[in-house]
Amino acid sequence: MCIAKSDGSLAAAPPADKPQQQQSSQAKPSSSKRLLALACLLLLIAVITIVILLGLLASRSCDNGASESDGLQSRRSPKSLTRAVYLDESGKACQHQDIRLPKSLLPISYQLLVRPVLPSQGQKTSVNFGRVKMMLNCSRPTDAIIFHVGAGIRISDLTVTAAQRLDEVSRQRCPSLDLLYIRVSRQCTTGELLNVSLSFEREIEGDKLDGFYMAKYKDKNRALRYMASTHMEPPEMKATFDLEVIRDWRYKSLFNMPLARTVPDTRCSHLTNQSGCHRDIFQTSVVMSTYLVAYAVLPMDYVSLQKVVKTSRGSIQVGIWAPSSSQNQLDFAMSVTEKVLPYFEDLFNLSYPLPKLDMIGVPQFAAGAMENWGLIIYRFSTLLYDPNYTTTIDKQTIAEVISHEIAHQWFGNIVTMKWWDELWLNEAFAVFTQYIGVDAFKPGWSMMDRCYVEFVASALQTDSLLHSHPIIVPGLSDPNEIESMFDDISYFKGSALIRMLDAVIGRRTLKRGLIIYLNRFPCRNAASSDLFAAFSEVRWIRFLENRTYGS
Ligand SMILES: *[C@@H]1O[C@H](CO)[C@@H](O)[C@H](O)[C@H]1NC(C)=O
Ligand SMILES: *[C@@H]1O[C@H](CO)[C@@H](O)[C@H](O)[C@H]1NC(C)=O
Ligand SMILES: *[C@@H]1O[C@H](CO)[C@@H](O)[C@H](O)[C@H]1NC(C)=O
Ligand SMILES: *[C@@H]1O[C@H](CO)[C@@H](O)[C@H](O)[C@H]1NC(C)=O
Ligand SMILES: *[C@@H]1O[C@H](CO)[C@@H](O)[C@H](O)[C@H]1NC(C)=O
Ligand SMILES: *[C@@H]1O[C@H](CO)[C@@H](O)[C@H](O)[C@H]1NC(C)=O
Ligand SMILES: [Zn+2]
């Protein structure tokens, strides 16, 4: 699959265009790795995105409480919309009028170097400098290179290189779609590799909780400290990511993947003594979607509770991070994680593919939590548990949010929806399996009995409103429309539907269908029809289907 653990537990994925019958006649083991790598690449649905961005979907909510009501305002039927023409910075029509990128160039890898300059005490502004190099594979001849660049990012030193010469002819920036459109002097040839490099610079803002942002908190001595973390929300595409972070000795950095090594650097412009300047180099990521890329730069005051969690398939290094003043509030999160993570591996018959899982509590965060692969970010209130102060209901919420985010490591991270119109494939499954996970953690809490009051009822309520919408809304393209998908319908009506399915076909059959679905599309994108096809392969459902249609 996406790589990492080689315990052979990930079944080879058949090419998507093959009819999905029995999977037994696979490629031989020797060639299956190549086949897998290929399958991963072929299926990238090319939304090429620079990693440092993007206020696009800022109010994405990942716990079941937060900001659900935001989604309720602007529901219209997309079909009835007459679309505006998107304009560039100078008022001309954008040459590419769609937030979805063409599939003519598919990203293979991103190499990212960042140098966040966080403010020293008293000083307000801070800037994130960096450079990104994207390797793109030409799948259809085109002379247009199009990718996302978030508003507020200044770019410079843009170069496009290929084996044969190719020059930039014109450039257009479309802030309304967060797009950069580059026309080059000739069409690429199929299979040709293009390297696009650019430098970027963006103010790190504390009040806008998107892109790479800064949060502050008071430490034990009540001094103001700064940390920065990401909350990135661009649409789908999959590639590998390499990250290097230049930081001074007062910070440490975290990424989706473990640190490979730290070397001395001399580019800490704010330091007079460069011997305190370091560059953290991280391991190359698995093939993943950009919206899951995350890194955090934490003050040394941050501490972690570390544990090697043993599962039936191996072991995972789990770290729970918080400021030192909250050091004694990390145990509960660890006890949930060490139970739920191995439980989900067995439930889905699929290994957690990364060597580590870090969870960070941050002071200011747009959603309840975000499921970045291997680096889940929480608000303090959804991670930290203090037996002396936390109420019982909050304790349950913490367990649910953690279980939800861990469920996303499969639903969303390993198998990702093709496009945001099928968000329920991520969110509804994460909501439903969050209950299954907490139920395994604390059977005495009777989690499955709480589903009705906790999400079915709110789904019914929202669904009774005029602006309700189907669970799947085909044809979504406007960023605001996408944002409004993060609502009760995707989360709760979707999970109510899965709950009904669970009740009708039984947990064992549900589980078998999910195993087929998840194991068929590792590190790829799937649609609802793929899910239904997986369920249809479980015999019981065929029987049910025949009954339903009266045959
Ligand atoms: C789980 O996966 C293994 C191979 O990785 C397979 O042999 C086994 O049958 C699977 N179990 C279920 C319940 O699908
Ligand atoms: C580029 O894509 C083509 C198919 O379009 C594939 O055969 C080739 O292996 C890809 N190149 C790389 C380096 O992934
Ligand atoms: C593109 O980048 C890759 C990896 O950094 C490098 O190996 C390759 O030589 C570059 N190709 C061109 C044409 O610059
Ligand atoms: C720079 O910092 C190092 C330790 O980080 C210290 O040993 C050295 O003396 C410092 N140099 C100056 C000029 O302050
Ligand atoms: C809870 O309060 C007791 C008594 O004040 C104290 O000993 C204990 O350390 C506190 N527990 C935590 C986790 O803060
Ligand atoms: C369902 O109906 C189809 C077509 O009539 C038939 O081929 C299939 O065997 C039936 N499945 C079951 C489980 O009865
Ligand atoms: Zn979620």
Mean pLDDT, to the nearest integer, reads: 78
Binned strand content: 25-35%
Our measurement of the CA-to-CA distance between the termini, rounded to an integer number of angstroms, reads 39 Å
Put simply, the count of helices is 10
Based on helices, strands and strand pairing, what is the structural class? alpha+beta
How helical, in percent, are the residues? 25-40%
* Poorly predicted runs: 4-81, 221-227, 229-235
The profile of the biggest β sheet is:
8 strands, mixed
Cα-based radius of gyration, to the nearest Å: 23 Å
Instruction: Kindly state the number of beta strands.
Output: 22
Shape: globular
| Hetero groups | 2-acetamido-2-deoxy-beta-D-glucopyranose, zinc ion
3D structure, described in words:
Keywords: Aminopeptidase, Hydrolase, Membrane, Metal-binding, Metalloprotease, Protease, Transmembrane, Transmembrane helix, Zinc. GO terms for molecular function: metalloaminopeptidase activity; peptide binding; zinc ion binding. The protein has 551 residues and is an alpha+beta fold. The protein contains 10 helices and 22 strands. It has helices at residues 29-42, 331-348, 392-408, 424-441, 447-463, 479-483, 488-505, 507-520, 528-537, 539-548, and strands at residues 105-117, 127-138, 144-148, 154-162, 168-174, 179-184, 193-203, 211-218, 224-231, 238-248, 251-255, 259-264, 277-282, 288-289, 295-299, 302-311, 314-323, 356-362, 369-370, 375-379, 415-417, 524-526. Strands 1, 2, 4, 7, 10, 12, 13 and 14 form an 8-stranded mixed β-sheet that branches. Strands 16-17-18-20-19 form a 5-stranded mixed β-sheet, covered by helices on one side. The chain is globular. 46% of the residues are buried. The protein binds 2-acetamido-2-deoxy-beta-D-glucopyranose (6 copies) and zinc ion (ZN). One 2-acetamido-2-deoxy-beta-D-glucopyranose (NAG) is lined by residues 135, 161-163, 195. Zinc ion (ZN) is lined by residues 62, 404, 408, 427, 430.
